[in-house]
Amino acid sequence: MKTTRITALAAIGLVAGLSLTACGNDSGKDTSAKGSSASSAPTESASSSASSASSSSGGGSGSGGSTDGQSASSSGGSGKAGSGSTGGGTTTSGKVTFCRTADLAIDAVDASPDKTSGRIDVTMVNRGSTTCSATGFPGVDIKDADHTSSPVDRGPAQPRITVLKPGAAAVFDIAYDIDSSGKSLTSPTDILVTPPNETHTVDLKWPAGAKPVKGSYVGVQVYPTHNK
Predict the structure, then answer these.
(1) What residue spans define the domains of the chain?
(2) What is the rounded CA–CA span in Å between residue 218 and residue 140?
């Protein structure tokens, strides 16, 4: 009887031990699985985040690099253009600048066509080494014997393109009515000429033989330049 109980208790103990071992093993497996899952999840998440960050950062950097590249390319292009423009490249050499007073030989002569119409032709010769433009109205003032100076108004005409190669000449006219009464109120002595688009003036003597100006200088007019 005692032997039977001992055997039964031993069997129960063995079964209990086996149950505990099985439970322990299952628990270990679960923990391992959970640990593995927890371990792999952050790694995958970090990898994805790193990949996203890399992609995002790479995209931004790429865009920035592309933008910088375009800017550099534009700057390079501009630099070349600027270099050509300031260094006497084709663009600069292709442009015709306005004639400077210092490069012009200017002279005035009487060119009155008859006894009533007074006209003075002012000729400008390009004595510079490059082609220049004398297009437009010149500035003209007439100095009188009483030491006054009167500006001359522009005549009703449109400027014509006037380009002067070295040695070429342009001319403009000063027109007025001739006083044949002998009672002119004017006594012109000099003509102050400022070429078109210039600020430097030359002083020319009133041409010998030029007829008296009728009335005052109010009716005197200057016309734009044209090639001679």
Answers:
(1) 2-91, 97-227
(2) 13
